[in-house]
Amino acid sequence: MEYRLGLIGFPIKQSMSPWIHEQFLKKADLKGDYDIFEIDPDGPVDKKISDLKNRQLDGFNVTVPYKKRIISHLDQLDEDARSIGAVNTVVSHNGNWIGYNTDWTGYLTALKHHYPTIFQKKSCSILLIGAGGAARGIFYGLIKEGFTQVDIANRTQSSAEAIAMLGSTKTETAIMTLKDAESRLGHYDLIIQTTNIGMKPNVTATIMSLEQLHQDSIVSDIIYQPIKTEFLHQASKKGASIHYGHTMLLYQAQYAFELWTSKKIPVDDMAEQLKRKLEEGR
User: Fold this and answer.
1) Are residues 123 and 217 both part of a single domain?
2) What is the pTM of this model?
3) Does residue 82 share a domain with residue 124?
4) How far apart are CA 247 and CA 253, in angstroms?
5) How do residues 72-116 score in pLDDT, each as one tens digit?
6) Which strands form 96-100's sheet, in the order they lie side by side?
7) Are residues 133 and 222 in the same domain?
8) What's 130's domain CATH number?
């Protein structure tokens, strides 16, 4: 069998997903291709997504801005993806498209790999910055993992409130402005930046000042281009521990590949390889 895989989104020409999945195919001793399908939001989006069915793909990843829009094209939704309301992985089974979300598992696995001790204190204080599709998945994962204090800071309060509704009865979530969060940073054990602010080419931008950050905090940014964002750079200067975004990319890809092929590929040696490739492309 030869697997036909790919990625839809915009812009995605610089995506590292093709490299990652090509490595997975080699490690699994499988034949196949992983292609880029860049779909311009200003064009006939729904037609182009529908046309993908004619390509008879075995599966594909979905990235911004289509993690929600893809749902109307799917025949079935995994329970987690339905709860989150966003899809980043589609599996084709007997001609039907089934939507999954591997972002939340990818993020938690990456965080646990680098900072396992934080998972021993479920009452630690967490701040989630942003309220997009990635934030929804990460918030869902944190709640599912049993964390009880997860606050959300976002420019639009209604978007943050919609995410907070994913919480359980054991969850406490405060909704706040970015300015309010900025003044309270010293209160948090873990701060997770989920917006695209600081992504190439706007590498000098940062979502907020980290002046009030505590040096014992862990600061995480899901952006991986550049590998060390200005947000993480400022966190380092304050003495905080940092968590790079490329590891989330790698682990969510691992879960997606397993959904497509039923093979879970070890990624131990790939994190450093991916980091080097991203640094070379600065």
Assistant:
1) yes
2) 0.92
3) no
4) 10
5) 999 999 999 999 999 999 999 998 999 999 999 999 999 999 999
6) 31-38, 2-9, 59-62, 89-93, 96-100, 76-77
7) yes
8) 3.40.50.720
- Residues 213-253 pLDDT 10s: 999 999 999 999 999 999 999 999 999 999 999 999 999 99
Same-domain pairing of 182 and 257: no
Check whether 64 has a pLDDT greater than 90. Answer: no
Is 228 among the residues known to form the active site?
Answer: no
**In sequence order, which ranges of the chain are alpha helices (DSSP H)?**
17-27, 45-51, 79-84, 103-114, 133-145, 157-164, 178-183, 230-237, 246-261, 270-280
- State both tokens at 7: 């990625």
- Whether omega for the bond prior to residue 65 falls within 30 degrees of 0, making it cis, is yes
| Alpha carbon separation from 233 to 110, 151, 202 (Å, rounded) | 20, 23, 14
Q: Total domain count for the chain?
A: 2
Q: Which listed residue (27, 67, 170, 277) is catalytic?
A: 67
Return the closest-CA partner of residue 106 out of 79, 122, 127, 88. 88
pLDDT at 265: 95
CATH number at residue 267: 3.40.50.10860
What domain range is 10 assigned to? Answer: 2-101+247-280
Helix (H, G, I), strand (E, B) or coil at 240: coil
pLDDT at 160: 96
| Distance spanning both ends of the chain, measured CA to CA | 37
Return the amino acid letter for 159: S
Same domain membership, residue 237 and residue 109: yes
